[in-house]
Every structure is written in structure tokens, then in C-alpha cells.
Design a protein that fits this description.
Elements: H1 2-15, H2 18-32, H3 34-40, E1 42-43, H4 44-48, H5 54-57, H6 65-81, H7 87-108, E2 114-115, H8 119-136, H9 142-161, H10 180-197
Antiparallel strand pairs: 1-2
Helix pairs in contact: 2-3, 2-6, 6-8, 7-8, 7-10, 8-9, 8-10
Length: 208
């Protein structure tokens, strides 16, 4: 049993998409090293002054360890699930999606001075996985149910906390808002990618 478990771990690590692992480690380091977070976080004033890298790196930052571990943990799990996707799809979600979320937040929410977290990227990946899973098997309720639970949790946080402080997952900055717009942008991005890419995605054995 022990040898089988070790073989499974080695096989999993060998096939796991390294980009997700590297980004997960960077997210933990950004939380552990405050200087990193200050230099990388999405900050509207810094963006205006030309620090445009924050549009992407801000997603590696978090408002406290509970926020970091929940977002990064889900990110790593989703990375394992989507690891067999085509490389271009992975890079769309790892490069274009974070930039799209930040650009959208910048335009839609000018009053949001700071934004951080992988939750938007997580939701985009989750929507895509749910759509693909449902396409393979229309009677499969699992992924849509997971998606609804996740969306419900976000809505509950906003309602229970009046949009600030992180709700069920506490932020270390009480004046920071739950960025609902970021999640909406991520979901729309994922649906567009799925709609454009669906002809090139494996279907498996779908029920008619």
C-alpha cells in the first residue's frame, strides 16, 4: 500500500502542470513576505503611476493567511483537474484571465483602491471545468452543484459582511471589499472561452 501511494504521488507530481505549482508557491511567498505583497498587490494609485505589473501580480497577493490558503489551495486542486487541457487554454487562464479581471475592476470599480486574491481566477477555472464536465455528461450534476455552492458562498459573504472584511474568510484589512465584479468578469471570460473553444475540446461519451 505504501509503495502504491508513493508511486501515485510520483506520477501525480510528474503530470501536474508546473505553472500552477510555481504560482501557488509564489502566492504563499507573497503572503509570507510583506515587502513582496506591497510591491505586487493591485493598487490603483500605483497603476496610475505606471506600475502595470500589478494588474497580473496582484492576484498572487492575499489579505491574510485564511484568504491565501483557501484561494491557493483551490487553485492547486483546479490545476490538477485542468492539467490535461491544451497548453494554449492553460495560458489563457493563467495569463489573460488575471489581466482581464484586473482591467475590468479598474474600469468598473474606480473606487476600489486595492484588490488581491486568486478567487477570481479560481472561479474562472471552475466555470470552465463545470461547462466541460456538463458537456460530456448532461445528466451529471456534480460540477454544476460545486459551482453553485461556490457562487452561493461568495454571495453569502457579501450579504453577511455588507461587502467588507471578507465575510466568512476574514481579511486582515477590514475596509477591503469583496470584489464581486471580479468574479463576474472571471465567469464571463470562462464562458466565452468555452463557447469559442468547445469544438476543439474532447467530448468523451456524452448522453444524447
Amino acid at each position: 500500500m505504501m509503495m502504491q501511494a508513493l508511486r501515485w504521488v510520483r506520477t501525480t507530481l510528474a503530470s501536474y502542470p508546473k505553472a500552477f505549482l510555481v504560482l501557488g508557491v509564489l502566492a504563499v511567498l507573497a503572503q509570507a513576505l510583506p515587502g513582496w505583497r506591497d510591491a505586487l498587490i493591485y493598487e490603483r494609485a500605483a497603476l496610475v503611476s505606471g506600475e502595470l505589473w500589478r494588474l497580473w501580480t496582484g492576484h498572487l497577493c492575499h489579505f491574510g493567511w485564511p484568504h491565501c490558503l483557501s484561494d491557493t489551495g483551490l487553485f492547486l486542486v483546479l490545476g490538477y483537474i485542468v492539467g490535461r487541457c491544451r497548453p494554449l487554454l492553460l495560458w489563457l487562464f493563467l495569463c489573460a484571465l488575471p489581466l482581464g479581471i484586473s482591467a475590468g475592476v479598474y474600469i468598473i470599480e474606480p473606487s476600489m483602491h486595492r484588490y488581491a486574491g486568486l478567487s477570481g481566477v479560481d472561479l474562472g477555472l471552475l466555470v470552465f471545468i463545470a461547462c466541460q464536465g456538463w458537456r460530456k455528461q448532461w445528466s451529471d450534476w456534480f460540477w454544476p452543484a460545486v459551482l453553485l455552492i461556490y457562487v452561493g458562498e461568495v454571495v453569502l459573504e457579501v450579504v453577511r459582511s455588507s461587502g467588507t472584511g471578507g465575510g466568512m474568510i476574514r481579511f486582515d484589512e477590514p475596509n477591503v471589499s469583496v470584489a464581486t465584479s471580479a468574479h463576474i468578469i472571471a465567469a464571463v471570460f470562462a464562458l466565452l472561452v468555452f463557447a469559442l473553444w468547445r469544438k476543439h475540446l474532447p467530448v468523451g461519451q456524452a448522453k444524447q
